Amino acid sequence: MNVKIDTKEKFHVVTPTDAAISANMTAELCSKMLELAEGPVKNVVLNMKEVKSVDAGSGEALLKTQQQFYENSSSFVICELTETAEQQLDDAGLLEDMNHTPTESEAWDIVQMEEIEREMMDDWGEEEAE
Length: 130
Hints:
By secondary structure, this protein is an alpha/beta fold.
């Protein structure tokens, strides 16, 4: 699977360049994104602007990966879904559980808000412990 990775201060933008994503390709993609989350920059924005087709297995793998990110106190946001891919995920009953935005800029905003929220929760937890 071909992807473009752009690393920012608080997150990586991962952009698959293939028009269709199958389940076996998604396994590789999810593994790569989870690997990125182990580094100093833990958040990922998955830009799907080039993807025209996503099968249900791929959608399920992406949803599972999103859950893994949040379990590890990091963010995972999908953005710029094409109309066809969005419809396929919706038809599979997966879209409503996914953290997704229409634009990459909005995805960046969500990552930054979640970072602030985690910092505030950490500070609050420290105050409770005192």
